Structures are given as C-alpha cells and as structure tokens.
Amino acid sequence: MTTLTKSTFLKLIIINLILVFVVIAAGAIVRATGSGMGCPDWPTCFGKLIPPTNIDQLTWFPDKSFSEGEMIIKDEKLLVALSDVKTGNSFTANNWQEYEKHDYAIFNPLHTWVEFINRLATVVLGFPVMLMFALSFFYWKDKKKNIVLSGLVVFLIGFQAWLGKIVVDRNLQGTTITYHMIGVFAILAVLIWMWHINKNKENRTSLGITPIFKNVILGSVLLTLLMVILGTQVREEIDLIAKTTPDRSLWIDQLSNMFIIHRTATWLVVIVNGWLLYKAAKENWLRSKVSRVIALIALEVVLGIILSYLNVPAVAQPMHLFVAALIFACQFDLLLTANKS
C-alpha cells in the first residue's frame, strides 16, 4: 500500500469522526427544538424528496398536480396520493389513502427543515464511510482489521438509517430513540479504534498505567455510556411532559426518579475520573489526556446545573448531549492508548 493511500485512509477516518459529531449535534438540535416529527414519513418528507416550505404545498386545491406517494393535510389527517393525481373542481376521496403508521398531521416549516437537515447530515456521512470501506481493501495483506471495522461502520450507518425509520413510524415512542443514540456512540468507538490502528506509533512511558488504572478507565467509559442512556430516558420523559405542560419551569418537578439517579450518579463520574487524574499525575502525556476529560466533565456538570435550575433552556439541551459525546470519545481514546502503552 502506498504512503499516499495510507494518508488518505487516515484522513477519511478523521473526516468521518468529525461528521459523526455533526450528526450528533444535528440530532440533539432536533430533540431540543421538538422537530423529531417534522417529517412524518421516512426517507421522504411528506412524500417529497425536498421538504415543503409552506402549508400550500400540502393543501388540496383545484387544478393542482400531486405525484404518487405525496401527502396532503386535510381535515387534520394525513392523506397519501395513491397515484399521480391531477385535481378537479371537487375533492375525490378515491385518489387518496389515509396515512396509517401514525395520526400525526401537523406541518411546522422550522421543524420540518431541522429534521430534514439532520437526515441530510447522515446521508453526507455515508459517502466518506463508503469510500473508507473501499480503500480498506488495500490493507488485505497487512491490516485486515481495517476491512472488518470499515464494514462494521457501514453496517452501523445502515442500521441507524433503518432505526431512524422505526423512530419516525412509531412517532418517537418507546426506547427506539435510546437505541438510536447507542448506535451513534458505537460508530464513534469503531472510528476511534480505527484511528488508533492506523496512526503513527508514539514512544511513551507507561509507569502509571497499571492493570487497575486500565480497569478504572474502562469503568469510566461504561459509566459515561450509562449516564447517556439515563439522560436519554430523562429526555424522553421531558418530551412527554412538554406535550401537556408548555411551561418549562414545571418540567423538572414532574420527572421520575430516573432524573434523581442520573443527577446523583454525576458524583460517581467525578470521583472515578478524579482518581484517574490523581494516578496520572506523574506522566505529562497521560495527565493531559485525563485533564481533557475532567475539563469536559466540569462543562457537562455546569450544563446539567443550567438545565436543572434554569428551567431546561433549549440551547443547553443539544450542548449537554454533544459534550457527553466528546467525553466518551476522549475516554475511549484514553482507554485504547493505555492498552497500547
């Protein structure tokens, strides 16, 4: 394999990592703005490849054309064109079928386009992922792991797309959103693993990296994942509360014990990672990596306090999830570095 190809492959891993964080940010903004059902169907949006920008595009009018599968909102119901339709002077019910997967029939241009941009971000991610998978076959002789891991990323992206359809079809109900989030973190983990496999080796001392230290790092990674899962469950509760209680100042008081567990477990996160920083004090490179994690945890705690005591401001919600993803990425990077040292 040529040096140029190896360099391109490594750059593609980095590009994909960046794009995954873009997808996470886009998804978090979708949740914070309540845009999850901005498009009632998948992969199209109201049956269109390009979403509508105004309600007139979803309204029946005489002498108007609709393609098969396009939707209209009529009598507070979503109707789907059974075939290409050219409307007459009166509405013909036989040309339409009620959308049966759910009864959500609301058009909000902001929500629609926020959700569409979120989907578009995932599509954009798919191109460099496929290119990375194609280039991985140049490693057939020396690094077959690249083929396997690249293929795994392709599979996970496809699984995420399928799961996204399930989330929409179920009108954001159930635990599918949590599974959707875990899938994104799995993609992050695989890409970081690939980056470690392919980056230039570094000579580093490893006096502070004992088996106990490694196990605690692993524990911190798993703890972060648990916190993300708990946080996603809390977020699902907030979504349900928001449907009946517009006043944000009343949301926190209506949450279940899941929120108390999530908030209390923050102390465990701080203690575990504080111990890692204490043990890493003797080695500069190790201390810098752990310090980065500690700084992100401190920011996450501040965002959590803002959410709890300032009535769940919308701007803090996507930031909270995005920082959690950064913490996981830095911890997983630390874990792989410790295992190699």
Word description of this protein:
The protein is 63% helix and 5% strand. The chain has 341 residues and is mainly α. It has one domain (3-41, 106-340). Strands 2-3-5 form a 3-stranded antiparallel β-sheet, with no helix packed on it. A two-stranded antiparallel ribbon has the order 1-4. Strand 2 (71-74) and strand 3 form a beta hairpin. The chain is flat, with a radius of gyration of 24 Å. 29% of the residues are buried. The mean pLDDT is 88.
Q: What's the arrangement of secondary structure elements?
A:
Blueprint: H1 3-33, E1 65-66, E2 71-74, E3 77-81, E4 85-86, E5 96-98, H2 109-136, H3 144-169, H4 176-198, H5 211-244, H6 257-279, H7 284-309, H8 316-340
Antiparallel strand pairs: 1-4, 2-3, 3-5
State which percent range the strand residues make up: under 5%
Give the helix tally: 8
Number of domains: 1
- The total count of strands amounts to 5
Shape: flat
Kindly name the structural category: mainly alpha
- Strand order, largest beta sheet: 2-3-5
Main beta-sheet strand count, sense and barrel state: 3 strands, antiparallel
Helix share bin: 55-70%
**What is the N-to-C order of secondary-structure elements (H for helix, E for strand)?**
HEEEEEHHHHHHH
Low-confidence stretches: none
Question: How many angstroms separate the termini?
Answer: 26 Å
